Amino acid sequence: MKSQSSTLILKKNEMRLSEGLLNPMKKAVVVDDCCNMIESQLASKSGLGGIAIKTAFAALKGIKPGYIPEVVEALLPQCFDAIDPIWSEGVQKGDPVQHLVESRSRTADVLLSITDDIAKISKRQIVRSTYNKLRGSAKLHVEAAVPDFAKVIEKYTTS
To answer: Domain limits of the chain?
Structure first.
């Protein structure tokens, strides 16, 4: 079972998620998979809320080529550190992916606390204003993405 493998690997190596997932051999592919996950999540959005989030994301992508992967790469260490305690609880319970999914509200809260802090200090007005406009619905979107994010983490903690 994959989740048992991740349990064994994390216990054996005793490393934090950021140490294992952002080592030079994995970092670029983890960032790429996270960006693909974000694109997939966006593609699944519909209705007025979907239009709003897709428009906002397009505006952010337009800041400069490679902006989204650059931001993902910068945020991942903090994100992995923030969710590491939740993941570790899941390792203790035998299924870190399922635990992260079951704890999606808590996971979303810790991830959003990071982006809240980053948005406050961003020097780019478009980033601050876009974030602030969408922040009210952000938790629902992040919670919806937690299962896919957990699968990305599992993929690289077992390889």
So the answer is: 2-157
